[in-house]
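Look over this today:
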Amino acid sequence: MVPLVLAIVALLASAPLVLAIVRANELFFLRVRDGGVRLVRGRVPPRLFDDVADVVRKPAVMHADLRAVNEGGRPRLYADGELSPEHKQRLRNVVGTWTVQQIRAAPRGRRAT
């Protein structure tokens, strides 16, 4: 019983480290609700944010989470939620026009539309 308790304690203590490792390559995380976009984590250049907001506004996306990560030196978008294949492709196209360096150089700030 004691080894099980110690294993659980060790697992819980390492959870923040595991989360930090998983998010190490994350560039930004955006939440879409009722056609509006909110920055949850990371940095997004204002022009990129506005382009993403335009894509999800018409037709309005009710619920989606957008996560951009650095994969092989290029930004890659992972999109979950109520997005059509066309929305997903347009969002990938928008994010793909930016470099990782441009996204990381964006000013910090919380923006919402």
